[in-house]
Amino acid sequence: MANKETPEASEQSASEGIPAPEGAANLIDTDYVIGQDNIATSRFGVPIDLHSVVFTVSSLVILLFVIITLALQDQVAPMFTGTFDYLTGNLSWVFLVGGNVFVLVALGLVLSPLGKVRIGGAKATPDFSYAGWFAMLFAAGMGIGLMFYGVGEPLSHFGTAMSGADAAPLGGAEGNAEASATLAMASTIYHWGLHPWGAYAIVGLSLAIFAFNKGLPLTMRSIFYPILGERIWGWPGHIIDTLAVFATLFGLATSLGLGATQASTGLNYLFNIPNTNTTMVVLILGITAVALGSVVAGVDKGVQRLSQLNMTLAFLLLVFVIVVGPTLAIATGFFSNLGAYAMNLPALANPFGREDAAFVHSWTAFYWAWWISWSPFVGMFIARVSRGRSVREFLIAVLLVPMLVSVLWMTAFGGTAIDQVITQGISSVQDAELDLQLFAMLGELPLSAITSFVGIVLVIVFFVTSSDSGSLVIDSITAGGKVDAPKPQRMFWAIIEGGIAIALLLGGGLSALQAASVSTGLPFTVVLLFGCYGLIKALMSEPRTV
Description:
Layout (H helix, E strand, L loop, with lengths): L6 H9 L22 E6 L2 E6 H20 L1 H39 L18 H20 L2 H12 L13 H16 L1 H20 L11 H4 L6 H37 L5 H48 L2 H22 L8 H28 L6 H32 L4 H5 L5 H7 L4 H31 L8 H20 L2 H32 L6
Antiparallel strand pairs: 1-2
Subcellular location: Cell membrane
Organism: Halomonas piscis
InterPro entries: BCCT_transptr
């Protein structure tokens, strides 16, 4: 890597939508020009600018998958279930090892002198305010999952811990309600704390450094330049980027499918609208149409505004639950749950010799695969909005801010539901289906019709921002790293995301969604482990600010 900051390099980066570094930066000396392998033309008045190999292979495979899944729904459903069971039952340790490595690398960079490196060059300034930045970080990374699992997961862990079932975390605490509640919250926070954001942080920081400091395309292949060198422009790079497209699409489809399932359940709960596949398909189609409008508006007007709307609605709902729910228990539970998480973290993160294998297979392995399959999407998105931040600032924000908000959310919603079961003896909340438990919990609080409606709106808006952000990211990968590719391409990918979500829901439901995430998350875990080395090598060559 040569220290090269020429006007030609600056003009090239700027012309392809990637700003040139501001101040000292160590650009990689390569003859590759961003977009040189692209097909750039206009057909029927529609401009296109596509990477010839990555777009062609990924789009054809995805379209074939959607067609086969829709045509052979009964035949593919058992295949999805079998795939999920095999991968989580035999290779869960790969996910756990990978998750631990990502967290340790991220924390190590925070504490090391490499944390002084600034994304975008030594004199780069942030593109977004802290408020806008935090909103986009949170909405992109956790939205629909918090709504779907915020009540259901703590209640599920509480129930299995109390009964001593096979799926109980760390063996459970049979018959002990207080210990079961503590274990349930610690296990939930484990799944929503440092580990998912560790994966996002590694991918996001890697992409940001290689694009904004090194002058390489904003694609996953760029992370591997220290390992593969100029070979990243050939088939090794094509394979990496194509895997990133698959991982992103199926990770997104899982979230969109969960969102459609919960929104349909909520509409049935409030308005008696039939909770059927037809309703979910109509929801996906309608929300995809809204996402298309947001895609056309762009990041500044579309994604940022919807993310801020998300944050406002989520904050209001969170405050409501805290105020009308068991306020003191939530306030004290936030700190006690963090403590329980810290105490149980070593045992929960242990990848080998677990006695609670059923818990690891059914919960942790799926979550880790889901987070890792989401990491190209979330990582690339937060890379695009984090230019101008220092490495230390980036990692602290990405690791801690969303994690603490997630802990507060889970404590408020999950803690309230558990309190309803333990102190009020309300069994209906625990007996409800997973996608109904949020509405069942809100139904026991005042103004339930209003708050349940807000919950449905939140699911839908999170759905839109996920689809919107995901299409921007996938478009960048399939456009050879360009971040200013024609908007019709982003619209194409937004439509494809909705198509995959529909295919998976009709072709196997939740099992199909989980199997898709695990299948794409496994190879990407290995890819990202090698990517950690590339990130450290890149940071070591960068100038550091005071």
